[in-house]
Every structure is written in C-alpha cells, then in structure tokens.
Write a structure and sequence with these properties.
This protein is mainly β. The chain has helices at 13-22, 204-207, 266-270, and strands spanning 42-44, 66-75, 79-80, 83-84, 91-100, 103-113, 123-137, 142-152, 162-171, 178-184, 191-198, 200-202, 214-227, 234-248, 253-264, 276-286. It has one domain (36-45, 66-286): Beta Barrel (Porin), CATH 2.40.160. 7% of the residues lie in helices and 50% in strands. The protein has a 12-stranded antiparallel β-barrel with strand order 2-5-6-7-8-9-10-11-13-14-15-16. The protein has a two-stranded antiparallel sheet with strand order 3-4. It is globular.
Length: 287
C-alpha cells in the first residue's frame, strides 16, 4: 500500500528526530493514496544578481495535457501507516503514474521477502491500483482531490484484498499544508487521516546546472490519525518526517534519494510498532 516508507529498523525516537533535524526537516509526501497536490510554492535559491539586461524570454512551448511516468524504487524496509509490514526486510517497488488533464491513474507494486509476514510465504506480492480526479479552486490556491484505491495480493498469502475511497484538500503557500482521509470499505472498514506540510527548495540556479537539469530539496512532515484503522478507537497513529532530494538529469529522466523517520504514536504502539529510520533510492522516466 502507498505511500510506503523504508527503514533499517532504528528504534530510537531521539535519534530519529535528530537525524531529521540534521537533514533539514524543520516543519511539522496519498498519506496515503497519492493525490494531485495544489500548485506548490517553491523557493528559488539563486545567486543571480540582476536581469536588467537579459533578453526577452522565448514564448514557452504549449504544455501537453497528459503524461506517463514509470519509476523503480528500492526501500530498505516496508512501513505502512507507521507499521512494519516485512519487519527489517527491504522491498522493491515499481510504479506507473498516468495523467490526463485533471485525471490521474496509478499503479504501485511491492515485492520482497514475505516470510516475516506469513510463515512459509517466501515472496511478498502486492499490486495497488488507484485513480482520482482533482479540481483547483480560488485561482488554484486550493486543490480538491477524490479517488479510489485498491490493494490486491496475487498470491493469496501476502494479504487480504481490500479497497478504499479517499479525499484530500491541499492549499498552496510556503508550507503547502494538506489534509486527507482514506476510508477502507471492504476488509477493515476503518479510516486513516493525515495532516501535513511540505516545501520545495529549488537549487538549480544556485548550482548553475545545465539547461534541462534541476535539483531540489523537499522537507516534509505528516501526522497520521487512525479512525478505527490500526485499532478499534480513534487515536493518534504516527508522525512521518522526511526529506527528498530529486535530481533531474534531463527533463524526462530523474533520480532521487530520500530519508524518512516514522515515529509510532498511540495506535501504532498498541500493535507493536516502533520508531524507524527510512532510506529510499529511485529512478523515474517521464513521457
């Protein structure tokens, strides 16, 4: 299930928070299901002094109204909503995201050693499918997203198939706050809510990268709330702090490295979850 995070199982909340601070997580990215965000405010970190004598920019090429992005990610551990799914085992996650105007469709796969989840199940298999529609309001300052998400386990052992509906509200400003709710309507019949913030610091101009290249640093913070999802009551579930560093080698080809820190709160603690440090590397190509 997505978003997923990965970790080597470091269990100290103090070291987890300290690592996040060192990496620049100074703020408090569908959970859970992926959802198109509002047009995020981005800070350009540049050493350019003046554009007084710069020539007039050329007219931009017409933007296409569709895209397809395929990615491959490797997580050092599979964490879902604050809970370790495969204990300390790593996971491989291929994905495809297709957009057309305000419609988006998603596929995420999760594959790894499954013996920690179900005894005798040597290979964990999960295929997630989602689709949503988003609409901008108030001059696109607010983006409203609604969609559906399905979790399928082809081997019949790794988990129980289930489905969710989800919604998200995202506001475009410096910290780009958002709230979201996923509600399971099949296997669990409970919900998982999130509230978070994020910001993109664009280092492209400061580093004077070549045309077509870009480098950003994206800190984020998210609070998860269980509405009868992790356990039967409504309670704080987890905190997820992160920093992602994507580098566009070309406009189409990108690589990224990400660190996240998952901190278990009441509901996650009740089912034996702890605090985890998270590592992820990936590559993606967009058409």
């Amino acid at each position: 299930m997505n978003p997923r995070v990965a970790t080597h199982g470091v269990r100290s909340a103090v070291s987890c928070l300290a690592a996040s601070f060192i990496l620049g997580v100074v703020m408090v990215n569908a959970d859970e299901a992926p959802a198109a965000p509002a047009a995020e405010v981005t800070t350009n970190i540049s050493t350019a002094a003046s554009a007084t004598n710069a020539p007039a920019p050329a007219a931009p090429a017409p933007a296409k109204d569709w895209s397809v992005t395929t990615s491959q990610d490797y997580f050092s551990m599979y964490i879902f909503r604050g809970v370790a799914v495969l204990k300390s085992n790593p996971i491989w996650s291929p994905s495809v995201i297709a957009t057309y105007k305000n419609l988006t469709a998603y596929y995420y796969g999760y594959y790894g050693s499954g013996s920690d989840t179900v005894p005798g199940n040597k290979w964990y298999e999960e295929d997630d499918f989602a689709a949503d529609v988003h609409q901008g309001l108030f001059d696109d300052k607010l983006t409203v997203t609604a969609g559906a998400y399905g979790y399928l386990y082809p081997d019949g052992k790794s988990g129980k198939d289930t489905y969710e509906f989800y919604g998200k509200l995202a506001w475009s400003n410096y910290v780009n706050p958002y709230i979201g709710l996923n509600w399971d309507v099949h296997a669990i019949e409970g919900g998982y809510g999130v509230a978070g913030v994020t910001h993109t610091y664009d280092l492209t101009q400061m580093l004077k990268l070549k045309e077509g290249q870009s480098l950003s640093i994206i800190p984020s913070a998210q609070l998860g709330i269980s509405f009868g999802y992790t356990q039967s009551d409504v309670n704080w579930n987890d905190v997820l702090l992160g920093i992602n560093i994507p580098f566009n080698i070309t406009p189409a080809l990108s690589v990224h490295a990400q660190y996240q820190c998952s901190i278990a709160l009441n509901s996650a603690h009740a089912v034996g979850a702890g605090n985890y440090s998270i590592a992820d590397v990936g590559i993606s190509y967009s058409f």
